[in-house]
Amino acid sequence: MSRQVGMGVAGEIEPGQRRRVFVDGRCIVVFNVDGAIYAIDDACPHNGASLGNGQLEGHVLRCPAHGLRFDLRTGCTPGTGGLSLIKFAVETVDSKLVLNLDEQNAVLANGTGGNAAGQPEAQHCATRQEK
Ligand code: FES
């Protein structure tokens, strides 16, 4: 069953801003990067550090704990594959931002959902082949 949570009026999170959303004990960070909205689980796939205060350079978020970088568009480490963020779908419905929290529908960078138990698990991006 799909779980959707309203996050207020679209446009409240302005470009360059981020907001934490707490739902059922889970923290999700929502970013507006140049008008595009991205929502990720606030746990680094490396060792679980909070990503909410990570430095953002364009679409690339740096984990404050050990410095791994993740592209919010793909969830992957730029250029190398590696660990993947857990992303959640965000849509605008009647001028409101709606976050889809259904873990089965969580968008992992490899295009799959959460595991069979409905729990997020460490995922890896495919290693890119350079030509
Ligand atoms: S916990 Fe994020 S890079 Fe180690």
From TrEMBL:
Residues 5-99 form the Rieske domain. It comes from the Bacteria. The keyword NADP does not apply. It holds the Pfam family Rieske. InterPro entries: Rieske_2Fe-2S, Rieske_2Fe-2S_sf. One of its GO terms (molecular function) is dioxygenase activity. Its cofactor is [2Fe-2S] cluster. Residues 112-131 are annotated as: Disordered. Keywords: 2Fe-2S, Dioxygenase, Iron, Iron-sulfur, Metal-binding, Oxidoreductase. Belongs to the bacterial ring-hydroxylating dioxygenase ferredoxin component family. This is 3-phenylpropionate/trans-cinnamate dioxygenase ferredoxin subunit.
